[in-house]
Amino acid sequence: MEVKFCVAENHPSLQGHFPGNPIAPGVVILNEVVRLIEKNLTNRIVVGIKSVKFVQPIQAGKEMQVHYVENGIDSLDFICELNGNVHVKGRLFLSSREAI
Description:
Layout: E1 2-6, H1 26-40, E2 44-54, E3 63-70, E4 75-82, E5 85-96
Antiparallel strand pairs: 1-3, 2-5, 3-4, 4-5
């Protein structure tokens, strides 16, 4: 499955991160990834992070593509890429909404 996101150039977390070269903080990126993936999951939510690797920085204003593949009912793998270049990759733990 594929979803897209863009961290706005005026996002509050970018103030001072870094002047003249606004780089999206990891927590902002992961928040967007989780939010978008959860919109597409049926009766499941993200409950944890198994692993994440930030391969390349993500600049504000760039539209990122998020591709993800479910691994059964309890996890999924994702990558964030721009123009075919991987910027972030990881694995998230899932649980049913009813279990929470």
